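Researcher: We're teaching a course module on how sequence relates to structure. For the next exercise, students receive a sequence and then see the predicted structure as tokens, so they can try to spot secondary structure elements on their own. Here is the exercise chain.
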Amino acid sequence: MKLLMAVTGLIFVGFVALHAYGNLMVLGGADTFNTYAHHLRTFGQPMLPYEGFLWVLRVVLLVSLALHVYSALSLWGRANGARSTRYAVKKAAASSLASRTMRYGGIALFFFIVFHLLHLTTHTIHPQGTVATPYENVVGSFELWWVTLIYVVAVLALGFHLFHGVWSAAQTLGLTSTAAARARAKLLAHLVGGLIALAFLIPPLAILVRIVK
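Model: And here is the predicted structure for the students to work with:
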């Protein structure tokens, strides 16, 4: 279960890193961002149909999400079943803090993903008003302070989740066997969580303060 969680988690790390990079395209203006959005839908043509690449990606992510949640719930159940009151108080407090960050942060991210898909993928909900070009949809959304607030809270949860996830994956994959290896893994976890969160935060905040219009 730990290995399955680590592997599926790393798939999501790769996806959110690329997604964050793509979001930064909005800083280049309407033509840059709309062109980027168009290329995502035509990527792989003619070998793939229109939006074929996106559907392959969606299936991979959906399967990975199902396996990630399943492994997380299984490990959570095992941890609760094996818990003992004989643990040292300090150790129990430290481990429970990390666990709560992962578990409840993960739950918050799950609900945000549902909102995000309904908002900017299926356009089932559109607080920005009329659904227009990809650029106009993004800018119109983040001009609303409460949409930006939801996004910022979700990104902060993502940053913590990435940090703990990368660190846990490094342990599961045997990359923390020495003090030097543990230091490198922890530095990598901080960099991944911090940089990806920062990349996600720049576009909505730039739009909110009218740097991007």
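Model: If you want an answer key for the exercise: The first helix runs from residue 2 to 23. The chain has one domain: 2-208.
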